[in-house]
Specification:
Elements: E1 6-11, E2 32-33, E3 37-38, H1 40-49, E4 54-58, H2 64-70, E5 84-87, H3 103-108, H4 111-117, E6 121-126, E7 129-131, H5 135-145, E8 149-155, E9 165-169, E10 175-180, E11 189-198, H6 199-210, H7 219-229, E12 234-238, E13 243-245, H8 249-258, E14 286-287, E15 292-294, E16 297-298, E17 303-304, E18 307-309, E19 312-313, E20 318-319, E21 324-326, E22 329-330, E23 335-336, E24 341-343, E25 345-347, E26 352-353, E27 358-359, E28 368-370
Parallel strand pairs: 1-4, 1-6, 4-5, 8-12, 14-17, 15-18, 16-19, 17-20, 18-21, 19-22, 20-23, 21-24, 22-25, 23-26, 24-27, 25-28
Antiparallel strand pairs: 2-3, 6-11, 7-13, 8-11, 9-10
Length: 371
């Protein structure tokens, strides 16, 4: 089945309840980002650039939009013969079936899929992070260290460290202790939720974990500590680029606003590690005589008659005359009628903001979400 030394398993079934109404009818990886993308585009594009062409996408919550969007993976050139993208929802067999109970259980329920390719390594990814990363470099590192497991880590703000799994390492970057969301972290080197396992090691660990009724069937809480206790070779792989977990409204909003900074850490315009998407093709955007647009991303199909500043405007959005949009994110197919004012807000797909409405405020500490 082609060169499948390493295949990827992309966890994309999260509900993302902290994103509130943005995920009411859509899984978190399917949420719009940066105007023309969906969050899952970044992990799928990374796989293509890393020469990893076999990707299992594990869906669960509200999967319809995501399944249609991914299709056969051709938008990311992941439709090669004998490889490609496979959608992997929970399913029933002769032994019964369950929803995915945790990150490790999701992979466990797809042992047959991985066995079909018989890879040497398995890359575990999350479908709800914004970043560019060449996984092939991490794979080379895992081989060099003869690691049973390599965990991608990055330095985070000390105030945020307790939200992550923290890796404590020796001078060779070998992990000697793994703390899942510790109250008092010993360092600020946080797991990014990106793992490369030797398949033989992971398979055995998943079988053990599945037989443990006291387990949460989670990589951070259960599988990684178990492998450490068994003395397996586990190493941290240091990543120094831009990476954001956009699991909350605040973090999601901030990551979008990062794109508008003059010297943004995350450059969507760079040809290096280009991000691909499967969005529809629309007519060119149109700026009317009264339009005034500053420091904003405007996608195809938009009709702008009003004032737009520091905002991300997705495709096929209409912004009426004398309307004002500031420091906001407008999803596709939204209509902002004449005279409406939108400040520090997120307006969801297909929404209509009626004439003269006022949504949000630049003076507010909260981000208004209408979806």
């Amino acid at each position: 089945m082609g060169n499948n030394e390493c295949i990827a398993m992309l966890l994309a079934g999260g509900q993302g309840s902290r994103l509130k109404d943005l995920t009411k009818n859509n899984a978190k990886p399917g949420v719009m980002f940066g105007g023309k993308y969906r969050i899952i585009d970044f992990s799928l594009s990374n796989c293509f650039h890393s020469d990893i062409y076999t990707v299992g996408v594990l869906t669960q919550y509200k999967p319809l939009l995501l399944n249609r969007y991914i299709g056969n993976g051709s938008a990311w050139a992941l439709d090669k013969l004998g490889q490609g993208v496979s959608i992997l929802p929970p399913y029933m067999d002769t032994k019964g079936g369950n929803w995915y109970l945790g990150t490790a259980d999701a992979i466990y329920q797809n042992l047959e899929f991985i066995d079909m390719y018989d890879p040497e390594y398995v890359l575990i990814l999350s479908g709800d992070h914004i970043y560019k990363m060449d996984y092939s470099l991490m794979l080379c590192y895992a081989k060099e260290k003869d690691a049973d497991l390599a965990i991608a880590v990055m330095e985070v703000d000390w105030n945020d460290a307790s939200r992550f799994g923290i890796t404590n390492v020796d001078e060779d970057m070998k992990i000697v202790e793994f703390e899942e969301k510790p109250e008092n972290p010993k360092n600020n080197m946080a797991s990014m939720g990106i793992y490369i396992f030797k398949w033989s090691i992971l398979r055995e660990a998943l079988l053990k974990d599945a037989g443990n009724d006291n387990s949460d069937h989670d990589f951070g809480k259960n599988v990684i500590p178990m492998l450490l206790n068994e003395g397996k070779n586990i190493y941290s792989y240091l990543f120094e680029g831009y990476w954001r977990d956009v699991g909350t409204i605040d973090s999601y909003y901030k990551a979008n606003m990062d794109l508008l900074e003059e010297n943004s850490e995350f450059d969507l315009f760079s040809s290096e590690m280009r991000v691909y998407s499967n969005n529809e093709t629309w007519r060119p955007h149109y700026m009317g005589e009264g339009a005034d647009v500053n420091n904003s991303l405007i996608c195809d199909g938009c009709t702008i008659e009003g004032y737009v500043k520091n905002s991300v405007i997705s495709y096929n959005v209409t912004i009426g005359s004398n309307s004002i949009v500031k420091d906001s994110i407008i999803f596709n197919n939204a209509v902002i009628e004449e005279g409406a004012v939108i400040e520090k807000a997120i307006i969801g797909e297909n929404m209509r903001i009626v004439k003269g409405s006022r949504i949000g405020s630049l003076d507010s500490d909260e981000i208004t979400v209408i979806a």
